[in-house]
Design a protein that fits this description.
Layout (H helix, E strand, L loop, with lengths): L1 E8 L6 H9 L1 H6 L7 E6 L14 E7 L2 H8 L2 H13 L2 E8 L8
Antiparallel strand pairs: 1-3, 1-4, 2-3
Length: 108
Amino acid sequence: MYNLIVMASRPSEWTHEQFIEWWRGEHADVTYPLPGLRRWSHTAVKETGPNRHSQGWDGVSVLSFDSKEAYEEMLKSPEWAKAAEHVGSMGGRAIMVMGEEQIMVPGP
């Protein structure tokens, strides 16, 4: 799998709960149609470590695609343009990283 990992924080005028509701509701509605999206997990951050760099984040999403090529094709789609525009209108901040997934401990 090739993953797009997004760590995001809410706009200053929103509560954590409002942001998670937006992410899992309104924003999810424009994310589900992304072409080639095979899996999507979302974690609402409840706790952070004591390191100051760990603080201030509200959630993490991992969007998975079959390959880097499938991810790159998705980036050319109107669905991606719509999702990216939707995030831009929100006004928080985000870090995005991409890469090949390596399973280190297999699930059940």
